[in-house]
Structure formats: C-alpha cells, structure tokens
Amino acid sequence: MRTRGVLALLFVCTLVFQVLPAAAQQRPQQASARASTAGTEADLLPDEPVVTQRSARIDGQNVSYTAEAGWLPIRDDGKVTAKMFYIAYTRDGIQDKSTRPLIFSFNGGPGTASVWMHMGYTGPRHVVYDDDGFALKPPGGVEDNPHSILDAADIVYIDPIATGFSRMVEGEDLHKYHGTMSDIESVGEFIRLYILRKDRWSSPKFLIGESYGTTRASGLAGYLSDRHQLYLNGVILVSMTGLNVDSGDDVSYATSLPHLAATAWYHRQLADDLQAMPIRAFLDQVEAFAMGDYLLALVQGDRLEDAKRTEMAGRVARYTGLTSEYVMSTNLRINSRRFWKELLRDQRLTVGRLDSRYLGVDLDAAGERPEYDPAMSDWDGAFSDAVNRYIRGELGYNPDLKYNVWGNVRPWNRDDGANVGQMLRQAMRDNPYLKVMIQGGYYDSATDYYSAVYTISHLQPGGEFRDRFRFSWYESGHMMYLRKPDLANANNDLREFIRWAVDDVPDYPRRAQ
C-alpha cells in the first residue's frame, strides 16, 4: 500500500479527471494564448536519423540489434506538412526479413508520446520500478528489459504529431492532425512510408496501441486495408477503450462492477470469505452477478420492487466494500469517480483511476471525487526523466527541442465520422487472417477489463469472429506491465499471439465446400 503526498493546486487542476472517460491516458492542455500555425520547431530536428548498435539479453538469449531514431515526412497533396518522429529497433543477423514480424507501436491520450510502452513494456530498455510496479526515488533509472519482444519481432515506436519530437512544419495548422480520423490518416501515412523506405512489404505486420492508442489501432486496421490495401496479421489492444460501441448507462454500470470489486478485494475491504478467494475465482463470481441479477435489476428502473432493491443493495455492497446505505443512495449505480473517493474515505485515502492499487491523499476527505490520480503522478516523473536520458544520452539523438511526453492536441475533433469499431470489424471481415489480442489490468478503472469483453463481443454479435480474439488479464492497472510478474507474462503472451497470428490458418468460410 502506497500513499502519495498532496500536490500543489496548479498541478492538480491539470489532472486526467477533467477529460472524457473514453480517453484514458489523456492530459488536458493549459489554456494559454498560442499561435494557430507552426513555427520553426521542426527545423531543430536532425536531417538524418541517428543509428546505434546495441545488444541485450532477452528471453534467455543474447540479442544484437540496431536502434534508429529519426523522422519521416507526412504529406498532404504532395506537400510536407509535418515531421513524425520514431525510434525503430531491428534485430541484427536476420538475412531474410520476409518472415520477420514488424510491429508499429504507439500510446494514447490522445496527446501522449509512445514512451509508456516503449520504456515500460516491449522495448529493449525500460524504466526501473519495484517488483510491484511502483516508482523508486527520483531520478529514476533505466535498465535492460529481459522480457522485450525484440527477440521475436522488430518494433517501430511512433510519436503522433505534437508528441515526442513530432512537429508540424512552419506555417502549418498546429491541429491539422488532431482528430480521430485525421490522426489515423497521418499515422497511416507514416506506416505506409516506413514500409516503403525500409522494404518491409513482405514482413508480417502488427499494430499495438494502448488506451486511446487502441482507438487509433482499430481505426488504422480498417484504414490501411481500405486506403492502401495493406493487410495486417494482428492488432494488439492494451487497456482498450470503447471503440464506439454504445453499451448504454445500465450496461456500463454492470460491466464496471467487476473492476470495483477487484479494487475492494485488493485493499481488503471485503468479508473474510471473499478475501480468501483467489482474485480470478472471485471475479468469475462477480461477473456472473453483474451480467445476471444486477443488470436485470438495473434495467427495471423504478419498477424494481422495494424489497428486491434492498436485497440488491446488500449484494452490491458485499462485492464493492461500500455500505448498503451508500449503494441505496446511488440508486444501485456506483459512479467510478465517487468510488475512488468513497472506498477508503474512513482512512482519508483515495484510490487511483488508472491503477486503483495506488493510494492518494487529498486536501480534505469530504469531497465526492479525488483531486488527482496518484497512479499518473507516480508515472509521470519517472518516465519523463528516463526517456530524455535514454534518447539524448544512450541513443545520441539530442535536438534543442522538448520531448513532449504530453503534447498540445486540443481541440481534438471526435466528430469526424470515424467509427473505429466498425473499421476494425470491416478489416477482420475483409482479411480472414487478421487476429486481435486484448490485454488489460483488473485494477484499471479508466478502461476497465470487463467493459472490454462486452465491447469485443458486440463487434460481430453473431460470433463469426469469436475465435480470432484473445484476452489476457493481469493483476495490475492501466500500465499492467510495470508490475514485474505481469511484465514477463504479458510479453510472453505477445510472443504467443504473434506466432498464432502468423502461423494459424483460419476456419472462416471463404468459399463453398
């Protein structure tokens, strides 16, 4: 159990609670006057990529690899409008690239760089955390990642425009690519150009996105297929958003209940018989209740009999660590933001949004919602310090330009007609070899794991694609890979998924028998 000190009011006001629920790794922008067109920042980037040769021991073997840091031009009607930064890792000694998987990786926000999965999850170097996934004393360290998937695939980490070192060129609209579809188009152009320039057409191709990056990855699967006839072998969705699948309020309360129960279980707020259960067995019980008796009660609204309402409040309280009186006062509908404040109110503590294992301390214990997310506070400093030390020092890419862990992408246009869930479904329809993996943590409230199950089950409700999805859940939160056992297990799950996606022959009907 960890507590985090009270943060200054100015910092608090910028935290992720102010953003829309669908965008989990997201930081609001300061409201300040700024030019609407780009200046000369893009000119500070080196003209040529910086290449270094490195090696690491990964998955029990010595792996020599090449790291390349650079940028590619993003064009609109033939005109260069932006420079998109990337760091690419390719394993040395591979003579035939035709069978070597290639993975394009990015994070979410929208408005955050690829640093989180790059230096927390799949990259060959990562930020040092303790075994449970909590930050050490600053400044944080960087070490080899023995679980990186670089032994199994080459990886390209992409920073969307305004994040990392990616910038619009002089005179261009700063927010030209800050919308659901325009973002997909710009990253899609990067992927097309990278494959072209590196001659990787014959490689099996994958996308991996985290948080809002799952929105981007799902849309890209359809966009690349439709616009460039570029078919993927796999899409990996880490801490998945709702993908435009509308579940309705009552279903959302039901699907979020297992996460609330997991949080109460972790903080030992439940009855002894429930605390004695293994987490997975406990959640099996909660899931059955959530989508059975609980959902049936919710959809009845005021038609639910008083005696049944009282009974239901007691059952919800038993699973969530709240009182029956509190559950009754919410009309059986537990708001997650209130829950973060309520669960440990008697201890004057809050729980985290992105990872509810983290504990916070507010200025007072009386409010309805926490004033900050202790999980995000834990991550920000360690990763920002590490990525600058690594890119500028170890990789030798050191322009006089701020590396934007969080970029200014507001306003973000969500109303440009992109239904990313349908784009992913259509990509799977057109390409029967495309597989999808979903990974997440039990303690992630921003993109809770059981809502992801509901979302995926409604992309193709008839079940024709069911066998092409895989789910993997871990005993941590939004960035589940920070906990050492989950870092190892999640990367091994990726290796297995890559093998499955490359080697499996689908049963999907393509012709008459």
What does this structure look like?
- Helix content is 35%, strand content 17%.
- It is an alpha/beta fold.
- It folds into 2 domains: 31-245 and 381-503, Rossmann fold; 249-374, no CATH class.
- Strands 1, 2, 3, 4, 7, 8, 9, 10, 13 and 14 form a 10-stranded mixed sheet that branches.
- Helix 3 (180-198) crosses helix 4 (212-228), helix 5 (249-266) runs antiparallel to helix 7 and helix 5 (249-266) packs antiparallel against helix 13.
- The relative contact order is 0.16.
Q: What is the oligomer described by this structure?
A: single chain
Number of domains: 2
Let me know the number of strands: 14
- Helical segment count: 14
Question: Which percent band covers the strand fraction?
Answer: 15-25%
Report mean pLDDT, rounded to a whole number: 92
CATH domain topology of the largest domain = Rossmann fold
| Known CATH architecture of the largest domain | 3-Layer(aba) Sandwich
Largest sheet: 10 strands, mixed
Basic shape: globular
Helix and strand composition category: alpha/beta
Determine the fraction of residues in helical runs and give it as a percent range: 25-40%
Quickly name the level 1 CATH class of the largest domain: Alpha Beta
List the helices and strands and how they pair.
Elements lengths: L8 H4 L37 E9 L2 E16 L2 E13 L10 E5 L8 H8 L2 E3 L14 E3 L9 E6 L7 E2 L11 H19 L6 E7 H17 L5 E7 L8 H18 L5 H4 L3 H21 L6 H15 L3 H6 L6 H7 L7 E2 L7 E2 L13 H21 L25 H11 L4 E7 L7 H9 L11 E6 L9 H20 L10
Parallel strand pairs: 4-7, 4-9, 9-10, 10-13, 13-14
Antiparallel strand pairs: 1-2, 2-3, 3-7, 3-8, 5-6, 11-12
Helix pairs in contact: 2-11, 3-4, 4-12, 5-7, 5-13, 7-8
